[in-house]
Give the backbone structure.
Amino acid sequence: MRFVIVTGMSGSGKTEALKMLEDAGYFCVDNLPLELIGKFAELAASPAQEYSKVALGLDVRSLYKNSDRSSRVEDFFGAMQEYSYEILFLDCGVDQLVRRYKASRRRHPLAEEGRIEDGIQRERALLEELKNRADYVIDTSDLLTRQLRGELDRIFVENPESSSLFVSILSFGYKYGIPADADLVFDVRFLPNPFYVDDLKNKTGNDQEVRAYVCQTEEADEFVRKLTDLLEFLFPRYLAEGKRQLLIAVGCTGGKHRSVTITNMLSEYFAVEGKYPVAVLHRDISR
């Protein structure tokens, strides 16, 4: 099991980092009280559990004793001494943290009634030992979201090129409306329509006879070739921008014949390529 502790300065992007790790298949828990962290580590490491990747967000509030304003960082290391784990520490410059807090209008957890800068200074001193013992330190001061995701993929995601973009290909009928959640929409109503053939009207694009009819001209094969070439170009660029799910919608009039045929052809192509996991959905095939 890979156990990652995600910690760092408040406002540095810990919550976003946890979301990204969750997208990458990590079981994520955020901001547990210090008293429960050891118990959580024990449960996660148990052979009875099926977790292979776990990430735990550690907030400064769990490491700060309000009564005497002392650090509990050593208590954390004591609770985790029996377990194997890695520490990811997210850092950020003071000016950028101040801007982020002003933009969010949230109060810094250690600012009390003082200035944001005072809270940042207290927090940095409190977390110094944790940062010194971290396995990875990422400064997010000038990082875009996609750049942070790229750093996390590089460190914590095995073979991200083959697993980090999940593609769904959906057939639909224009008469029932374009899917609202579609990222890309392609219209195949230019292809021969089996609806007007009595023997094919009540069949679907899953039937070989319908597929043969739709693909009777070279246009269908050429369209699929050009579309797959376009998608091969787009997929890595969506990944570079931090996208992890992509819905491709293929539409014909009723969503039973042409769109189903082309959707199946696209899915077969990417199944052979094996670069991206693909799900096939036929929204209107039963209407």
Notes: The CA atoms of residues 154 and 160 lie 8 Å apart. The chain has a mean pLDDT of 87.
